[in-house]
C-alpha cells in the first residue's frame, strides 16, 4: 500500500491566496517549467493568479495537487466550472535595446596630408556625416580636391587592396619591370648626369618618343653605340628629353603650362584627379589654392580661341554644363550670349566638317528613292544618333532615311 504524504492547505486572510505545505514544499528542489523560457520579474505565485473564467484546464478531472504540480501547473481548490488544475500565465518577453553606433574618432594628424595624396573614401556629393560614419576624413576647404578621404593609417591599406583587386593585365604590367631594375639601374647610373642638361634646355621635344636617337641615352648600356647611330648626337640634345615621358599619354611641357594662375582655362571638372587631367593632355598644378588646378595648355587655349563665336560648331546638346562639355574634350565659353557655349576647337571643327561632308554625300539622292530608317515622331538627333540621314525639307517622303 502506498501512503501519500499529508499536505495541508491554508488560506491567507490578507491576500486570499492558498499555500500548501508537505513533501512537495519541503524538498526545495527546483524543476524546469515551460514558462521559464520567458524573461520577467514576476514570481511563480503571480503567474498562477488567473481569473476562473480564463483558466485553461491542465490534466483530467479529479486530479490531485501532487499530480498537478508534476505537470508544472497551478492548483486551486476554488475554480470556475471545477477547474482546479490549470496552466499558469506566461511571462512577457524581454525587449533588447538596440546598441547605438559609435563613430571611431580619428586623430587630427592622420587627416593632414597633401591634396594630391588623398585617396577617395566616399563618392561625389557625400556629406560630412556620412563620410565620418565611414571612419574617414572630411575637408571641403580646398576646391577641386577630394573631400572624403582615407586617413593616413588606412591610405596604405586601401591602396594595397586596390592593387590586389586589379585586373590580371595590370598586375602583369606592374610585375614585368620588377626583375629588370637590378641589371638596368647599374649601367644607367653612369650616363644619368649626361641627359640632365638636355631635359632642361629643350623640354618641348617630349613628343619625339619614336626617334631612334633616344636609344643612345636611355636604353643603350655601352657608350660606343652613340657613334653608330647618329654622329651629330652632341647637337641633337632634344632627343634625350624623351626620358621624362612616364604616363600613358604625352607629358605636357613646362612652357605649354607656364601662364599666370588667373589666365588658366578650366580643363577638368569638380574633383578631377591629376591622372584624369593628364589623360586629357591638360596641365595640372595644385600648388596654388583657390585657382584652377587642371587647365588647358597654351596651344589648346589658342585652338579654342581661334574659332569665331558666330562660327562655333555645337558639341553636345543644348543646356549642357561646363563639366559635361569638358568630359567630351570640347571647348566651353559662356561669356558671349546668343552663341553656342560648348563647341569644337578649330582642329576638331575641321575634322567634323570633313565628316559632315562625307555624311552629306552619303545622304544625297532623289527624295523619292529614300528608304525609311526611323519611326514616326522621331527627332533629328535620334535619327542621327541611329546613323541615318535627316532631311525635313521635302514633304510626303521619309525624313529619316538610310544612307546610300
Automatic annotation (TrEMBL):
Pfam families: Trefoil. The keyword Disulfide bond applies. Residues 7-24, 197-245 have a biased composition (Low complexity). Disulfide bonds join 48-74, 58-73, 68-85, 111-137, 121-136, 131-148, 257-283, 267-282, 277-294, 315-330, 325-342, 363-389, 373-388, 383-400. Keywords: Disulfide bond, Secreted. It comes from the Eukaryota. Coiled coil: none annotated. Residues 178-196 have a biased composition (Pro residues). Residues 26-36 have a biased composition (Basic and acidic residues). InterPro entries: P_trefoil_chordata (IPR017994), P_trefoil_CS (IPR017957), P_trefoil_dom (IPR000519), P_trefoil_dom_sf (IPR044913). Residues 1-46, 153-245 are annotated as: Disordered. Residues 46-89, 109-152, 255-298, 302-346, 361-404 form the P-type domain. It is found in: Secreted. GO terms for cellular component: extracellular region. SMART domains: PD. This is Trefoil factor 3, gene 5.
Amino acid at each position: 500500500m502506498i501512503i501519500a504524504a499529508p499536505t495541508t492547505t491554508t488560506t491567507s486572510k490578507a491576500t486570499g491566496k492558498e499555500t500548501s505545505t508537505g513533501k512537495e514544499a519541503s524538498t526545495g528542489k527546483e524543476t524546469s517549467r515551460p514558462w521559464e523560457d520567458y524573461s520577467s520579474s514576476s514570481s511563480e505565485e503571480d503567474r498562477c493568479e488567473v481569473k476562473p473564467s480564463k483558466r485553461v484546464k491542465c490534466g483530467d478531472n479529479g486530479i490531485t495537487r501532487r499530480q498537478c504540480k508534476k505537470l508544472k501547473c497551478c492548483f486551486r481548490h476554488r475554480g470556475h466550472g471545477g477547474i482546479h488544475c490549470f496552466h499558469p500565465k506566461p511571462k512577457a518577453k524581454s525587449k533588447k535595446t538596440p546598441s547605438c553606433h559609435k563613430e571611431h574618432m580619428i586623430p587630427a594628424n592622420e587627416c593632414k596630408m597633401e591634396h594630391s595624396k588623398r585617396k577617395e573614401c566616399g563618392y561625389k556629393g557625400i556629406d560630412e556625416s556620412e563620410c565620418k560614419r565611414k571612419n574617414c576624413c572630411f575637408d571641403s576647404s580646398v576646391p577641386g580636391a577630394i573631400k572624403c578621404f582615407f586617413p593616413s593609417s588606412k591610405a596604405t591599406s586601401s591602396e594595397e587592396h586596390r592593387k590586389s583587386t586589379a585586373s590580371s593585365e595590370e598586375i602583369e604590367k606592374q610585375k614585368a619591370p620588377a626583375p629588370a631594375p637590378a641589371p638596368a639601374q647599374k649601367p644607367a647610373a653612369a650616363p644619368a648626369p649626361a641627359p640632365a642638361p638636355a631635359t632642361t634646355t629643350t623640354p618641348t621635344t617630349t613628343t619625339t618618343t619614336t626617334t631612334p636617337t633616344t636609344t643612345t641615352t636611355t636604353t643603350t648600356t655601352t657608350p660606343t653605340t652613340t657613334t653608330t647611330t647618329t654622329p651629330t648626337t652632341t647637337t641633337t640634345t632634344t632627343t634625350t628629353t624623351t626620358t621624362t615621358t612616364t604616363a600613358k599619354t604625352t607629358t605636357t611641357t613646362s612652357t605649354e603650362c607656364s601662364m599666370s594662375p588667373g589666365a588658366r582655362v578650366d580643363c577638368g571638372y569638380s574633383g578631377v584627379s591629376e591622372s584624369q587631367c593628364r589623360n586629357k593632355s591638360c596641365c595640372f598644378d595644385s600648388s596654388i589654392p583657390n585657382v584652377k588646378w587642371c587647365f588647358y595648355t597654351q596651344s589648346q587655349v589658342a585652338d579654342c580661341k581661334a574659332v569665331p563665336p558666330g562660327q562655333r560648331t555645337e558639341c553636345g546638346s543644348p543646356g549642357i554644363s561646363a563639366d559635361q562639355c569638358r568630359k567630351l574634350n570640347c571647348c566651353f565659353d559662356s561669356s558671349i550670349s546668343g552663341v553656342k557655349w560648348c563647341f569644337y576647337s578649330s582642329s576638331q571643327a575641321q575634322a567634323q566638317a570633313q565628316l559632315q561632308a562625307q555624311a552629306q554625300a552619303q545622304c544625297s539622292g532623289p527624295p523619292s528613292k529614300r528608304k525609311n530608317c526611323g519611326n514616326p515622331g522621331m527627332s533629328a538627333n535620334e535619327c542621327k544618333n541611329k546613323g541615318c540621314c535627316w532631311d525635313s525639307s521635302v514633304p510626303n517622303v521619309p525624313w529619316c532615311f538610310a544612307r546610300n
